Fold this protein.
Amino acid sequence: MRYQFKTEYIQDIRLFRWGGARAFWTLLGVYTLIVAGLNLFMPGQMTALNWVGLGAVSAVLYTVVVRKVAGDALWYGLLGIVVLTAPFVLDIYFVSQLTLVYIYAIAGVGLMLLVGQAGLISLGHAAFMACGAYVAAIMSQQGYDLLVILPAAVLISAMLGFIVGLPALRMTGIYLGFATYAFAYIFEEVLARADGLTGGNNGMLVEMPQLFTFLDGVKIGGLELGPIVIDNEVKLYFLSLALVALTILVGINILRSPTGRAFSAIRDSEVAAEALGVNLAIYKTAAFAISAGMAGLAGALNAYFLSYIFPEAFTILVSIELLVMVLVGGLGSPLGVVFGAIFIVMVPEMVAIAKDILPPAIGEQPGLKNGVYGLILILFLIFEPLGIHGWWLKAKTYFNLFPLYKQGLFKRQKSYMVSERDR
Amino acid sequence: MAKSDAFLEVDDLAIHFGGIKAVDGVTFSVKKGEVYTIIGPNGAGKSTIFNLIGRIYDPTHGSVSFEGKRISRLPTHKIVGRGIARTFQNIELFEMATVLDNMLLGRHAHLGAGLLSHMGFFPHVRREEERHRHMIEEVIDFLDLQHYRDQRIAELPYGVRKVVELGRALATEPKLLLLDEPSSGLNVEETEDMAFWISDIQSILGITVVMVEHDMTLVNEVSDRVLAINYGKVIAEGTPEEVQVHPEVIRAYLGGDEDEPAEGPKEGEGDGEG
Ligand SMILES: Nc1ncnc2c1ncn2[C@@H]1O[C@H](COP(=O)(O)OP(=O)(O)OP(=O)(O)O)[C@@H](O)[C@H]1O
Ligand SMILES: [Mg+2]
């Protein structure tokens, strides 16, 4: 059994609660160095087995060097090794699926902050994704660098989110849901009509973006540098991985900072929040802007992922998918969002498999996928409001307390969803 | 009354909800450092006065000044920055957050770093956070809440919640504290604690207190002056002893003409006037 006492007062605002931040970076650093070295000296020699072995070697090295198995940090370090290795080991199809998980997770972190933390609802997130996607598509066409495109996609979507957030100052709950839905509907229509820019309903092809275009023709010593063109699945995978890590970090930072606290204050009691000096107008629109910015980033990546976008790729169904994702994953934690993203990417696959097995009367029904989403969502809301993240917490507690686990330990932790509570 | 020594000055304040004159031309002033209590039957308009001072409602007419400056046109969220904190009659805590987080929200008006630096959680954000936490620890010690620090509000008994709400108000470092029925729902022992804290808040922390209270033992124990109101109008003001024996006050509590019970239903009394 492992004891987890609170050992330091500010523990809960640290990134790795149980210590080991330095250990985490050491582990990842060791691994990255070895991989980079091997790739440089014997390119194309690595097999799947080699990669796994390398991961194990780095973990052992790390444990020997650091002489400490630091709680969460070790697990995150191992996770880091797994996700860094995955594209070299896995079939290209699974690499794409994982990329999609990251893209959804980016949008999910934003939606989780809005819905779970600030207690606001949005049925319009598909529109923010669409915004990011079209910004990315149009700007790549004109040959901009990703370093310009991505911030632009985030900022423009965030600005749009700010504007859509204005109604939130006057309404909550179902009304806000309808307002954001109406916005998304209008936005989709605008994309379809503005065919000079967006290609209208015919959609537009998305060109492969370039990273570091300023390196074009630059020479250091004998080495000729050049921009990186994101032209295959593996490169897009790493781009998405870097951005999902960044987004999660920003999400965690907001959650542990006064801004996150102010969001939860708005959710739980607007009257008290205002009496304590929380400017509702600023924080509500900020929640929308941040959330929309993250959705825009996901949208931009999605454009490259799909390589062909059209207005109907961003309908209300996408917004609902995103909501199902954060609810099933578990509100209130970025980790939950990742679980939710895995879920949302897996369901269509499962449904596709099920279609072959099920009798045609059920299997051939249109909308089977959405039916499954709905059913699972209802089951989660009734039986596990904390979502998949709740299972995770329970499993963790179970192992930490191992011999002492007793029935009914989690009875008291039953929680409820904050939505339309009497304020 | 000389404006200069008035700390909180409420002048001819009124608000009408449709036909109901919930507050109807109330004037009083509170001196720095005193404990000033507002009493009155249910529905008299006591909480509404607090909501007017706290800028939750716009007054129909009249004004409120604090430290010589008019505050009755300020936006709601600016009030706490002027040094006025409050508790609510029906406890308005952030249910899903911990005691610590609730209290830290009391520091909101003192925040330096902005949203963008929060996203990066830069070193100065962390240092600021630690500073605020030190301040909160003092409040937690003052109110003996160490035991509950990391618990969520939803898990706490009512009596503790009342104390947490008081603590959150103190965390704002107010000059003026508005307490709406601090003892309601508390048992005898908890009410005694509350009385001690209120006197300590006045004498040790030097904070001026305006409170609404029904428990006359508590009122007598801590108040310097008492204001009695009924149907939104002032009926008496003075020391606790004076006000309690005031004929108008006795009549108000005994229920006007009929022999209604002292704590008559809100609606009935409101309708009588409107
Ligand atoms: N927002 C509102 N809309 C309409 N009427 C209101 C509103 N707020 C208060 N009132 C009415 O104003 C009157 C005074 O209410 P208030 O809450 O100030 O009473 P109170 O003195 O605090 O009573 P209690 O001792 O029960 O707390 C009541 O008749 C109440 O119904
Ligand atoms: Mg009241």
